[in-house]
Automatic annotation (TrEMBL), chains A, B, C, D, E, F:
It comes from Fictibacillus macauensis ZFHKF-1. It comes from the Bacteria. Pfam families: HutP (PF09021). Keywords: Activator, Histidine metabolism, RNA-binding, Transcription, Transcription regulation. Belongs to the HutP family. InterPro entries: Regulatory_HutP, Regulatory_HutP_bacillales, Regulatory_HutP_sf. The gene is hutP. This is Hut operon positive regulatory protein.
Length: 144, 144, 144, 144, 144, 144
């Protein structure tokens, strides 16, 4: 497989969001990473929180559109896993509490494959009442 | 949170599919679990492989429809995370190689919440050519 | 409401598929109707069965595309209710056994609203094993 | 068919929303049922109205998440039939006026199949202008 | 092909939105057309702008529901091309700047095919920041 | 707008598929382009035809996954415009006859934005019977 076994960017992003001790694995590779949290009934706020964290932590260069574009589609793909059908939260009366991990690195053995970005989400989704919720997970990956 | 911190069924299912050493965490809880693999361009074969493993390993009772129904929807939800938009593989010229973990347990503190089932998927998705692929993840959770 | 209370085409189509005694209500209005059955794992066969019945029973004129087009979209909308997310059957390992009713009539009080077509579906959806299924319903309505 | 012919929960829910005389059929079976109405351009208000009615009429126990979860997914599935593509109302400039019926019962012959819940919706969908609308129907069914 | 080569309503609508010199092609056919612009993060405002333009320019008769219905579905189909997955804008933190062309005419050789309506959209979609955007296109066609 | 007015890659791709005289505009910019045709009821064959043309005409380097990945998502986005809801053809009993244009170039003024790819589709979609069809259009754009 062209994906290098020690450089599985999606797995690393997901593990680091599930268990913070894994963030060191990303550091060892010399890749960039940031971890954050967002809770909202408004899906646009979830997108905004992840984008803001990525820019503030310089995972992406916010003034270059191709980087914003790569990240945006990775976020949307990750939200598909969390929402499973309609990328909607409050409009279908549900809310999320999510931890997110954004990793930028070079997961492929061939240098020509360049950089990729992974967005991993883990948390809960459910009614806007504490406890009426179950877990949800999403992963989006894109070339950058 | 009503979800017991040590009994996060989704997290445990996902961790055990990412790293097999985590399967013991599920055993400690006395929950049922099975792990398997499936690779296919046919989405129905992916569904069938997971259903068959769940029945064969007695995670669900295949002769009770409510159990099959709970599992089916959990699988479909997990596939949303893997496919991110259209639950289609070969019909849009892509294939998956997935590892799956099915966990059945009691993640909530309150006994009345009963049993739940989690289906975690991790692997690669891409063109039907080795190496032209990236990682994908999905998680589906349902009451059973 | 511009929809005439005694001419609710969707309600009449649905009632006649749930209980054949209601077909007389459609006849009284002088509207056209046909009722049929289709069972398949192949979604295209479901579409074909409904289209064929509509043409054979002269509910639509199969040689006029605008009539075929109106019916096709009504069928697709009805299938959304049956499939609830992805208009797929066998590709996600499920099958349907459906009764369908196609009604063509003039449900609006104003003459300018002209003819409309309703496709009502009722039956079961589930695993390709007898009994592992629950009911499903769909209704599609279009101007013709 | 394992679904008992006199206990077709989806059919009974749909018939009772189309014609109130059918509510007695549900009573005869000793099942629980409630009927209500909701009109809104905000999809979350439709979900809320159905959930509130179910709790207030004790169709579900609102303090047990598994019951809320079962109902929520049944509502979402029913809304797929009503919206046919995107579970959106005001955000795509349309509004609904719906009658709903929620039925909880034991539709399968085998006792092990336990309780199920059906949400049937019938009404109109259209532009936010009286009369610019057609009928819409949805049914969601889940084990509870 | 029953579609007359010089009367390709979709092509004409799209060309006239891409290059205004093409609007004369529509005039030559004696068809109705209007062109407009809308920029918004609110998807309902995009729908409203197109509907309002169509009524004001008498492309459709706003007091006849079947005409509004035909236009509405054509708009929704065109928005699928622009949004590519979820017909959402601000709720997924993106905005559009669109030019639209609405054409009503008789694209088929056979007279029985009657009138059809095409809605063509062209513009940009992206983050709510000038320049962080790429182009998007959509076309919806319906019988009217 | 950061998109250079003379370098609107999506517009150029769409115009060249609607009217071949526009292909010279792409040549003038020194960008790469190829034009082709595909007709099929099988959505995977549509994807394959476009991918094959892009590789054969060296629009993308088929041995570099990031290029295949960029093209694949552009194709899928373009297909959303053509299919408007479900990226399915034969499985919902419809077929397409499409002309496609693939353009690779540098549409942004800032050099850092690098190369982008556009896939434009134009043709007909309809029943698998000649003439029972209307036009369809799709555009997908991605950074490469
Ligand atoms: Mg991808
Ligand atoms: Mg759920
Ligand atoms: Mg409609
Ligand atoms: Mg179900
Ligand atoms: Mg159509
Ligand atoms: Mg994009």
């Amino acid at each position: 497989m062209s994906l290098s076994e020690e450089k599985l960017i999606g797995k690393l992003a997901m593990l680091s969001v599930l268990d913070e001790t894994y963030t060191s694995h990303v550091d060892v590779l010399g890749w960039q990473q940031c971890i954050g949290k967002v809770g909202s009934m408004e899906s646009n706020k979830v997108v905004a929180a992840i984008e803001t964290a990525a820019k503030k932590n310089e995972i992406i260069n916010g003034s270059v559109y191709r980087e914003t574009h790569a990240l945006y589609h990775a976020i949307m793909e990750a939200l598909h896993g969390v929402t499973r059908g309609q990328v909607q939260l409050g409009t279908v009366l549900r809310t999320v509490g999510l931890k997110f991990s954004i990793v930028r690195g070079t997961p492929y053995e061939k240098e020509a494959e360049g950089e990729w970005i992974a967005v991993a989400l883990y948390g809960t989704i459910g009614a806007p009442v504490k406890g009426l919720e179950h877990e949800a997970i999403g992963l989006g990956i894109n070339h950058i």
